[in-house]
Amino acid sequence: MTIDYISSRHGSQGTPAPLGFxxxxxxxxxxxxxxxxxxxxxxxxxxxxxxxxxxxxxEVAYRVMRPFVGxxxxxxxxxxxxxxxxxxxxxxxxxxxxxxxxxxxxxLELFHGPTLAFKDVALQLLGRMMDxxxxxxxxxxxxxxxxxxxxxxxxIEAVRDRRTIDIFMLYPHGRVSEVQxxxxxxxxxxxxxxxxxxxxxxxxxxxxxxCFNDLAFRxxxxxxxxxxxxxxxxxxxxxxxxxxxxxxxAPEKPVAFTVPTGNxxxxxxxxxxxxxxxxxxxxxxxxxxxxxxxxxxxxxxMTTAGVVPTLSxxxxxxxxxxxxxLLFDLFDRNxxxxxxxxxxxxxxxxxEVGGNAxxxxxxxxxxxxxxxxxxxxxxxxxxxxxxxxxxxxxxxGYAVAQQNRRDQAxxxxxxxxxxxAKFPDAVERATAERPALxxxxxxxxxxxxxxxxTNNDAKALKIMIDERMAAARPPAxxxxxRQ
Length: 483
Ligand SMILES: *Cc1c(COP(=O)(O)O)cnc(C)c1O
Description:
The chain is built from 19 helices and 15 strands. The protein is α/β, with parallel strands linked by helices. It has a domain at about 95-115 and about 235-435: Rossmann fold, CATH 3.40.50. Strands 3-4-14-9-10-13 form a 6-stranded mixed beta sheet, with helices on both faces. Strands 8-5-6-7-15 form a 5-stranded parallel beta sheet, with helices on both faces. Strands 1-2 form a two-stranded antiparallel ribbon. Strand 5, helix 6 and strand 6 (about 165-170) form a beta-alpha-beta unit. The chain binds pyridoxal-5'-phosphate.
């Protein structure tokens, strides 16, 4: 079965031909402003799921993702890319599942990659897939992205030293943690360009958008996006839902998942796994005080509110960009109706779904929230009860999961999205101890940094990118050995 892809707003601007995987991966966002998704989900029978039990992570990954990539890679190439991506993880398990005593709760540890957050799981593979495709086409691409922390370092780590890709990463000067900043700025590869913007994260996002909206500029550099709207990232995240469920008795036994949520990419990947036939009992969407999604699941209305900074900054979002993919199903896959609703949402800050749709979606999703005081208490509680130190994002999941156990007999997996050492201040507040960075990052605070500054000015940024790219050609020789 070969999957093709449509936009969540398909039909709103004519009916473009469905795309293949390579185009979707390299484009990121659809031209009509929508998000790409498969026109139908590949289905796995109970026998096919059972046959994955006991297999290594890379084998489960290959089987789950194979239908999505179509003929973009031959079998040997795809297996090699998967193998290389997950060989850089600290453990051969890639995503170890750790039971919390006999509570029925389990932590799925997704932070054993190079930058200590779950974003490595998808980006390590995406960087390799993009590089392979660009090399085969003899092309070069430029990634422009904005980050409030974790995405930037994971994307940089995924493409450093690749001759087919340059990456420009914008972050708000003085507003990311020191660990997060250094994980970006100490990567000295010549294709990595860190840019500290005098402004907020929203300013950074607007600057990135301005680059994409300048079509001549966009085409000149073959701009591409690696934020979580890129479907290839969702695809790679589907794998660990299968992986965890298999360990807990799928396909015979159902399992529930709680997901610390920001842009809704991670939990949407779980929803996709369920559409593909994995028996998932229900999901719990766990938010911090920025609870636009929790309010939606309670009321059926999505209404914007200002962002407040919290101890779990990677979940400090105003609008969850990936939520449009779920809305597509709530709008009965009617791209035109969804496009209209999204346009009106932009104008009014409000979007509502009908009672039927809300009832349906609530069969699958519960939602909860936890403020900073609760987060600190949850870190302390897990440490006391189970001897395990959580990062603040996972702590939100841990607490919200316990408030949303529908059935004590169904195991509940909490996605553990970051290593505690990535957020030492919050952890120290809860435990009075500063978590140590793992050995391979132990000297992070002594490493040399390289970063450029810029004002919040799109024109100046585009000139900077033009100049850097003119200077970069012809491409420098591989620099792993030059550093
Ligand atoms: C990005 C991130 C999240 C939020 O994930 P989404 O896919 O945006 O919902 C949660 N926790 C951590 C540590 C993250 O880096």
